[in-house]
Amino acid sequence: MARNMQPIVKRCKTLGIEPSVMGYDKSTRRNPKQSRKKQSEYGIQLNEKQKVKFVYGLLEKQFRNTFEKAAKRPGGTGENLLIMLERRFDNVIYRMGFAATRREARQLVSHGHFYVNGKKANIPSMELKEGDVITVKEKSKDSPKFKQLRDMIITTPKWVTIDVDKLEGKIVALPTREDIDVPIAEHLIVELYSK
Fold this sequence. Notes:
Strand order of the largest sheet: 2-1-3-5-4
Distance between the termini: 29 Å
Strand content: 5-15%
Helix content: 40-55%
Largest sheet: 5 strands, antiparallel
Number of strands: 5
Radius of gyration: 17 Å
């Protein structure tokens, strides 16, 4: 499987986003690198697509397939795309606070540390739905990673709940566009793919 091995902070500077969006506390310069040339419309649209791919940790083929599924659903394509990305298993684990970054969440999922509705699940791209219950496996609860979670205060978005003592979380509602805190102009991605 292909992986993106680029340095996180360097890529954040290039795309003009704060590293804190990716879960990293390393500070960068206050002013992102300014380009001397005016960026074309295509360049702006491409940059927005690259930003979303980078934040959610997707490769081009995965992103394209997700976009095509979002286009087939009723409603706005851009909003559907972002909601589908928020509902990915690895992103939900990140949002519940079981992982510090989306990359770490993806690794925890692929290593099989979680159950979804009592069944083993290790596919990070799996799209979860309202009412799904995510629990940490009994074997994994004894690991230092999950033991330290019990002492932490975890803030979650309003569409998920978490019980830190049981190491269990539930999706109580579907995410909406307002729940997505990353600054994304999804209409630019739709315009890029509609050419």
